[in-house]
Amino acid sequence: MLAAITGVESQLLSHIRISMNIGITANQLRLVAQLLADRVGADSGQRAREALQQHLASRPAG
After folding, report:
1. Are the C-beta atoms of 16 and 25 separated by less than 8 Å?
2. Do 50 and 37 form a contact (C-beta atoms < 8 A)?
3. What is the spatial distance between Cα 16 and Cα 25, in angstroms, rounded to a whole number?
4. What is the pLDDT of residues 8-44, one digit of tens each?
5. Contacting residues for 61 by C-beta, under 8 A, at least 6 apart
6. Which of 10, 33, 42, 49 is 20 to 30 A from 19 in CA distance terms?
7. 43 touches 51 (CB < 8 A)
C-alpha cells in the first residue's frame, strides 16, 4: 500500500498511471482514496488523491 508510506510518491503515481492504463477509472481510484482515508488514515487518502490529481493534470486535454 504505497499510499501509506511517505517518500514513495513517484511510485504511487506510476501505479495510478498503470491502473488507468488497464481500465480502472478515475472515479474508482477516488473511491480507493476515500477508503484509504477512512480505514488507513487521512494522510494515506490524501497522498492517493494527490497522485491521481497529478496524473489527471498531466494528461492531454480532450
Report:
1. no
2. no
3. 10
4. 999 999 999 999 999 999 999 999 999 999 999 999 9
5. none
6. 42
7. no
